[in-house]
Design brief:
Layout (H helix, E strand, L loop, with lengths): L1 H18 L2 E3 L5 E3 L4 H31 L3 H11 L9 H28 L4 H16 L3 H11 L10 H9 L10 H25 L6 H22 L1 H11 L9 H11 L4 H4 L3 H25 L1
Antiparallel strand pairs: 1-2
Helix pairs in contact: 2-3, 2-4, 2-13, 4-5, 4-6, 5-8, 8-9, 8-10, 9-13, 10-11
Length: 303
């Protein structure tokens, strides 16, 4: 019908624009069209959609990362907490993740544009640098990830009941307390962004050619899901250390290596114990990043 024809036309126009962002002008200089306001908006909406669907899975995963328990035990903990506490702590990730993904996609496009215009390095280097810088900028929102960790930890249930109280408790320990666990976040964000944006195109090209709206959506889901699952598994130990560091309130600020070695010893120096919960993280990331990438590309085509 007319709607399908319109959608195909918009999809074709959008793909042509994305494929030709970096090109040569008449003077031989690379130019990049900048219209990234929509990239921020699409990233923001994709994050909200994803969190609403996957938050309960994330809570199970968090318990495994923090305490090294089995999946069944983590689920039993949530059952004991009750349905009332199932979505406890969702406000910080809604605020943090939606803003983070808006920055991730939007800043990547903006920074890629600036770097492609002003440096003579290869395009792959400029785009990788843009991805790392975008990931580093996202770390400004660490306080929200910090509070989310505290709200999901049942050991702190009696200390505060909502996001505001958690922020107030941390304030008593100084501004630095908000950024506990910053190092693992920096180690994770930059490299994972570079790999995500660098591999997204090649992976999609390996998939069967999309000829309809639905196949485009499926390809985007598969592409985002595969990348998310792969990167989630790769950086899983970093997130384990982050969870341990951020579950602490007050006291000494320990280095990344110190906390890692403590966890390594506690878990009998076994890699399988360090990756406990990684299989659930793999499936959560597969669904989560599939939703994010598909929603992002869908909204981008509509706009």
């Amino acid at each position: 019908g007319p709607f399908r024809k319109l959608m195909k036309s918009r999809m074709a126009d959008s793909e042509d624009l994305l494929l030709n962002k970096a090109k040569e002008d008449q003077t031989g200089n690379r130019i990049v069209k900048v219209n990234s306001g929509k990239h921020y908006f699409c990233g923001y909406c994709a994050a909200i959609t994803n969190i609403a669907v996957t938050f309960p899975i994330q809570k199970v995963l968090f318990r495994q990362q923090l305490y090294g328990v089995r999946t069944r035990d983590a689920i039993c903990q949530l059952q004991k907490d009750g349905i009332r506490n199932l979505y406890r702590g969702i406000l910080p990730p809604l605020m943090q993740k939606s803003t983070t993904l808006a920055l991730m996609f939007g800043l990547y496009e903006d920074l890629s544009s600036v770097l492609l215009r002003h440096i003579s390095a290869p395009e792959i280097f400029a785009r990788s640098l843009a991805a790392v810088l975008a990931g580093t900028t996202e770390a400004v929102l660490t306080p929200f990830e910090r509070v989310q960790t505290l709200l999901q930890d049942y050991k702190h249930h009696d200390k505060f009941t909502n996001t505001y109280q958690a922020f107030r408790v941390l304030r008593e320990h100084g501004a630095r307390e908000y950024y506990r666990g910053l190092v693992p976040i920096l180690l994770r964000n930059g490299p994972s962004n570079a790999l995500f944006f660098g591999l997204r195109g090649p992976i999609k090209q390996c998939l069967p050619e999309a000829t309809t709206y639905s196949t485009h959506l499926i390809n985007d889901f598969i592409c985002g899901g595969v990348l998310g699952a792969m990167l989630g598994f790769m950086f899983f130990p970093v997130n384990v250390v982050k969870a341990r560091m951020q579950s602490q309130i007050g006291g000494e600020f320990q280095s990344f290596s110190t906390v890692f070695m403590k966890i390594w010893v506690e878990r009998d120096r076994k890699l399988t114990h360090l990756f406990r919960g990684a299989h659930l993280n793999y499936h959560r990331s597969l669904i989560s990043w599939g939703i994010i990438n598909a929603t992002y590309e869908f909204l981008l085509k509509l706009l």
